[in-house]
Amino acid sequence: MPREELGVRSHMATRDVSPVPPRWDRKMQQRLARGEAAALGELYDRYASLVHGLAHRVLGDERAADTLTRDVFAHVWEHPDTYDPRQGPLRSWVAALTRRLAVQRLRATETAALARGGPGSTEDLERKVRRASVAARADYIVQSMPAPLRAALESAYFKRRDYRQTAADLGVTEDEARRRLRLGLQLLATAQDAAAPGSRGAPPEIGGAA
């Protein structure tokens, strides 16, 4: 399928809120490898909002996120064999691919701006890229958390509630609220770890499995 046929529908796509069984991932990879256009449409409907959201988090621009969304699904269509179901869920692989492409695009854009005499330095550029990468990974981690952990974090950090208020909001004990917050923060800390230079948790180069 040509890239231009991959219209961006991320705002209308069904939001991916539930996991799919490993069998679905395997069958999807096989269908894509056979060149089934319908399979690409199903994949797009499930993951377009995820891809667009992560791309926008890194690039900070709607049009750039639209373009990157097309590029991600074009890559999946053209190289379905680069996903190995044995290495993890297709959702995680798509997210890692998106972050990697988005970071590459951001670095290229910012490097070009510096070359034209724009403000800042190479160090500023790398800090910006790292912050964007960490933020995108943190967004993905929060989306992927079990609902109880996500609800605790949202109460404590977005609604500015303390752990006692969070416990009351969620109808759990204060000890349980603290436990959920601690686990949620531990998961979020992996976003920093994965973005560190040379980290084994960093997204792979394009063409590798996540």
From TrEMBL:
UniProt keyword Phosphoprotein present: no
UniProt keywords, alphabetically: Sigma factor, Transcription, Transcription regulation
Keyword check for DNA damage: no
Family matches, as InterPro entries: RNA_pol_sigma-70-like (IPR039425), RNA_pol_sigma-70_dom (IPR014284), RNA_pol_sigma70_r2 (IPR007627), RNA_pol_sigma_r2 (IPR013325), RNA_pol_sigma_r3/r4-like (IPR013324), WH-like_DNA-bd_sf (IPR036388)
Xref: Pfam families: Sigma70_r2 (PF04542)
Domain RNA polymerase sigma-70 region intervals: 43-108
Family label: Belongs to the sigma-70 factor family. ECF subfamily.
Protein name as annotated: Sigma-70 family RNA polymerase sigma factor
Lineage of the organism: Bacteria, Bacillati, Actinomycetota, Actinomycetes, Kitasatosporales
